[in-house]
Design brief:
The complex is a heterodimer of chains A (297) and B (228).
Chain A (H helix, E strand, L loop, with lengths): L1 H13 L1 H36 L3 E6 L5 H12 L4 E7 L1 H11 L4 H5 L9 E6 L6 H12 L4 E5 L2 H43 L1 H9 L4 H37 L11 H38 L1
Antiparallel strand pairs in A: 1-3, 1-4, 2-3
Helix pairs in contact in A: 1-2, 1-9, 2-7, 2-9, 7-10, 9-10
Chain B lengths: L1 E9 L5 E10 L4 E5 L6 H8 L7 E6 L2 E2 L8 H5 L2 E5 L10 H10 L8 H11 L15 H13 L5 E5 L7 H16 L3 E6 L2 H6 L3 E6 L2 E5 H9 L1
Parallel strand pairs in B: 3-8, 3-9, 6-7, 7-8
Antiparallel strand pairs in B: 1-2, 1-4, 4-5, 9-10
The chains are: A alpha+beta (297), B alpha/beta (228).
Amino acid sequence: MRLLTREALLSFRRAPLLSALSVTTIAFSLFTVGLFGLIAINLREALRDLEERVEIVAFVLRGTPPETITLASQDIATFPEVLTVTYVTEDDALARARRELVEFRDAYRDLQVNPLPASLEIRLREGFRDAVHAAAVAERVRGFSFVEDVRFGRDWVEQLDGLRDLAGILGLVIGGVFAAVAIVIIGVTIRLTLLQRAREIHIMRLVGATNWFIRGPFLLEGALKGFLGGVLALVLCYAGYTAFRNNTSVLGGLVFFGPHHMFVIVVFGVFLGLFGSLVSVGRHLRTVSGRLDRRMV
Amino acid sequence: MIRLSHVVKTFPNGSLALKDVSFHVPKGEFVFLTGHSGAGKSTLLRMLYAEERPSQGEVRVGGHLVHALKADEIPRLRRRLGIVFQDFRLLEDRTAFENIAFALEVTGARADTIPARVTRVLTQVGLAAKARAHPRELSGGEQQRVAIARALVNDPAILLADEPTGNLDERATRGVFQLLRDINTSGTVVVMATHDLDLVRQTTYRTIEMREGSVVFDSADEARGEER
């Protein structure tokens, strides 16, 4: 273990410039992934705000006894998709209309009879705020005999679904592309190190070191570079985030990565480092060493 | 100790490096492998330490069927061998001591045994006083002695030396050759590829001469012929 660490750190000491270059390139690749991640989580936050407005409104037939409605509300509240059920009486509806629809305030004030129906406002749990679940709940609510009509803004919810799918696909594709780029960059930097240390690897093989023993320091080096790259990428992301937030007054509500996300980015960096090293060392051991041996002889 | 049976080596480009090579090296023998450049000496040595596989035939080294070894079995074979090259192949940024210790460390030797073992082989090659010197601070002969010490540190049964005196002056050549003879005297098989016919003529060691991938002369066959 001591030897493993010593050999892994040796490349940082021997070739500080190359190591710094590796860490920086890894950091920039992860920074790009991270920036996209930031956009994705902010987009998701924005979508979550929108999602919270997904609501099913069941209009109640005039003259339905309040006890019936209360019982039905309790029943609907037990649906797995349902978060809350709010009973809005006719008077509540009118009061709200007077409060919110300012331009019709006069019209509402002079009314002799309240034209607004009572309703049940049903909010869905997170994960069920899409067109399919909303339609299913609406259908079940429609089954109550006192329900006159059910609305949930199908078009709007479907558009929201589309936006969410698009964000997910874009996230996967762009995130995947940048992750692949990061793996290639890490692989190339590790290969440079390998070529620089080809003589050492050659000697290790000649004296009977196992391939896993030879791989060890390079894997550790890759993981270390990935870790440092990940941390640096987070610093760059934070700098970018701060600069963007300070210069964009409209978007004051931006969020940065939480501890969980930061951990994932650093672990992802370590994973990329390990994977890049594994591929490069494996290829080197299969091909370059043999050729090198013949060339040296 | 070493047995080659009808070994043929064809490279992917079609060139034939070894043509039906067969010979046997028993325990304790010192063998010269001679021949011009390109005669197949280095290919043959590489085959003995499993860096090349024969296209046909069998290669047995110290009980290992080299032609059939799996990749993960090769390190075990190499730990029984010592290998020395013309260009020494030392790590320039490490001292003589560290170069030798490296061979032990990477084969998983116990850390507390390493200093004593390194000191023993450095003494054996006459360089105990230069343990802290880097290769650039050593003469060619001394660098080759460090390389030999590294090859010896794992107590190999067989020492393979590919032109070990090729880069050395006459005096250093004599010193390194004497060292190889001493190693052989202590029971290690030595196979030494060389161009240096003067060196070969100085001794009565077995000589295998190669030309264009074939064994064209083996002094052991001649001796057997004379006996008959």
